Every structure is written in C-alpha cells, then in structure tokens.
Amino acid sequence: MSWTRVFVLSLLTTLLILTFSSVVRSAAVRGDSKAADPKGAARQVFMPESDASNFFKRRSRRSTRYYELQVEQRVKISAMEQRREYNEEQRDEYENYIKEERDEQNERSSETNEQLREYHYDGHQPRYYWFH
Description:
The chain has about 130 residues and is mainly alpha-helical. The chain is built from five helices and no strands.
C-alpha cells in the first residue's frame, strides 16, 4: 500500500510542477484579442487572378531565356561539328600523306634491290637465290 501512496504523491508533484512552470505557460496557447482573421490569411496566401496569370506568362516554359539557351546550344553543337570535321580532314590528309610516303619508300627500296641484283649477276650462276 505504501508504493501506491508514493506513486500518487510523485504524480501530484509532477502535475504541480508542470502547471506552474514558465515553460508550460510560454508554450500554452493564449486567448489573444488578435484572433487570426481567416480572410486575412487567405489574402496572404492567394493572389488576384490577374497577378497569377501574369506570373505564369512571365515564367512559362517557352520564355525568352529558354530560346536563348536553345540558340546557345545550337551554336555550341555547330562549333563542335565544325571542329570534328576539320580534325577528320586533317587526319585523312595525314593518313594519305603517310600512305604515299610508304609507297614511295617501298618503290625506292625495291628499285635499289633490283639494281643490286642486276649488278651482281654475272650470267654464269643461276639466279634462284636472289628470289626468295
């Protein structure tokens, strides 16, 4: 029975502390004379229809900024394409130049080899070992 008395006394003391504490008073809702006007709150949240339509006209998806961004993107893309085409042309020209140089080098080396074969051939020995 003593534990019930202790429990009840502790509950009463906590109730008294909570009711008289300043924390509870500051957090409690007071009945002020300035009651919130529901029409005033609606005025703050909502705007007139003309202002709303102007807002959406100015911030529509197809505004001037959107078109400016599209134009800038097109300019960037065209510059990239021109750069890519220029690089391809330069690469093709270089590859053709290298191919011609190799062909000329191979032709010169085959001509010198043929001249050496003809020079060293004396007509007495068979020429089978010059052609591998």
